[in-house]
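A common beginner's mistake is to predict each chain separately and then try to dock the pieces by hand. The better habit, illustrated here, is to supply every component at once so that their relative placement is modeled jointly.
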Amino acid sequence: MRHFLNGAEAIARGAIHAGCDFFAGYPITPATPILLHMTRELPRVGGIAIQTEDEIAAMGFCIGAALTGARAMTATSGPGISLYSEQIGAAIMGEVPLVIVDCQRLGPATGGATAVGQGDIQFLRWGTSGGYPVIVLAPSSVPECYTLTLRAFDLAERFRVPVFLATDKEMVLTNTTVEASAFERLSVRERKTAPADGGFVPYLLEKPDEVPPMSPFGGPHLLRFTASAHDAHGYLTKDPRAIAPIHEHLEAKIRAHVDEIALFRADIQSGAETLIVSYGITARAADEAVARARASGLRVSAMTVYSLWPVPEKALRAALRGVKRVVVPELNLGQYRREVERLAAEGQEVIGVHRVDGRLLSPDDILEQGGLR
Amino acid sequence: MSENRPITYLDESRLPYPFCPGCGHGLILNHLNAALKRLGLDPRRIVIVTDIGCQGLSDKFFATNALHGLHGRSVTYASGIKLVNPDLKVIVLIGDGGCGIGGHHLLNAARRNMGMTVLVFNNLNYGMTGGEHSVTTPTGAITATTPYGNLERPLDLCTTVAANGATFVARTTAFDKSLPDLIAEAIQNEGFSLLDIWELCTAHYVPNNRFSRKALEETLARLNFPTGVLHRQARPEYSRAYRQATAARRGEPITPLQPLNAEHRSALRETRRIVIAGAAGKRIGTAATAFARGAVLSGLWATQRNDYPVTVRSGYSISEVILSPQEIRHTGITKPDLVLALFPEGLARIRPVIEALEEDDTLYVNADLLPLKTRAHVIALDFKATGQKKEFWAVVGVAAMLRHSALYPLEAFRQALSLRKAFAEANLAAAASAENLPLFDHADAHSSHQ
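With all components supplied together, the output reads:
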């Protein structure tokens, strides 16, 4: 059995299957279909979906909801992520599990509302003060929109951190044919909560790289949340001895688990001199380019990265081994190429193939500019 | 009333308050404690949300739930908390600074009548950052950022939220002995309550303006800002209203995904790329979706990418459809094999595409748009002869294209059209009208290129 749908619908359906019961958002092209789907469907599963007065409020509502026990999600585009920025920082600081969908459009600023772009890739990682890590997943097909939304909710619970789904106008709005069996229904773990009959210290770290259990507002314990530097009890403090372990933990909980988070597809051909590294919508053109290059007798390897942040360095290094050149096609001027460049060995040529005119990169663009023709 | 009614809601181990001598904040917190004691609520059912500024230091003195967030955003967290758990009492402590930067949230929480009690610690300036002017600073006042006197008019918080949906609004001063009663009444209100509490900032506003309790009261009178309960109204609280409005939907199954089984067969052996160029409001996307779904019903893989400007019912509307016996990787079209050109808006947008078409490509075109410069095989379509309205020409055009090109059986397109109940009958009639439409080979188009 097949279906015909777009990424927006796949994301919304994935969210509902993941147990999402709270959605707040503000209309913006091309993310609006997710808001519409959630406002229509969430009440059916007992959830709440609301259009807020702006994007700052959408994130604030989600933070409040998540701390009250909800599985919360929001969806926007680049200009909305700009407005989310301060609240993303608050969610990182207070360790709030959240899923944020970025349907990228052509930037900068208001850019092209109905045109595709991949210009937020570094912004998502570094888009709030402090520089602490988040997780960013990038689907490159409609079924992956569904599956990675489930994965995003699972990782948000696992690491108590905002998890982004970095997608784009073409992925969310282009209808494609999907084999029903392609929707992989991953399980999403339950929130780790403090037992009702024990004590509860909201930020007590048993191990620096593991997150403490939560307890919701209105639950059996008193909860203290703060976006300010705090001690284990959630009290604002300037005591360096209390602050240091908590701040180091925000980094360590992600860094120590890069391999657990890493998601990629490596299609390695022995003897290949060229490796194409791609993600998101551009991976579709890259796949086509690889198929055509191989059909013409060329040997070429490909790596599709699904977990953009943290960078799956081990897998990328393994894929880079032995190739002479790496081609990184992106709908920006070389944002993820920076990550590939720092992993490339001396003498390995890294070629960026770019388009920032609102059109998709074509397989021909990749073949020609990547020296595969 | 709770069975474990506390004797105090303050965490006395954390006292004393860290505020300046003579500051009103401590008075307000004591009054809040008195109000909570009177209400006797379970501390686990109370969430105190603080904003940024000196009042942002106060949640730590309460043995309740607490959230200390970003500047001006306290009301947004409070809204999320209340929406998820309407049984909680959410109390927002915010300064006049927070009411400025977060004014939008305040206004919208009032409009929604979102259940929360907002206590404004209004000391007429930004105390923590050095005494800069705020939205409530009286005209003429000297502050760090108005050294020559404030030129702005102070915001009347109470009138603003009362006029926009708040259900309990009062103004008073931190010296008011009846403040615990007012706070208790505000908390008991199910909806959005705001108390504008005027007080002295002894670090900045007092020395900068030779201000005093007496001057504060005179300022209120001069501004014609009355005190006491100013507004009470009965309106449904939002988080409960939402549940009521959606109660009938709860438990309904989510809308299922439409299954598309391959009930028809297509003889197509290679990938075909089709561009449908029309105008906004002419149901181009709808026809293209049915066209693509018909292909899926014929066992093909299909994609449909839409291109349109930011305008809604004006300008071009273009759908790119790819059909293939194999799964489709790249969903963009650089050069199509078939083009259906319906309206001038779309035609203007794809003119370079039409010029790039080759001899074995086909252009199906509204006869009124001819002549055109192209090498493609041109089939002219006389849509007017069908008697169909322009909104159905895309369906007519697709049906004509299917008749001529044999991409997949017309019957599959008809089935796809009936999947969308809204216009099924009219769409099927439009498709039927294409059956007798002459498919002219338009030789003029070729000659016009030569």
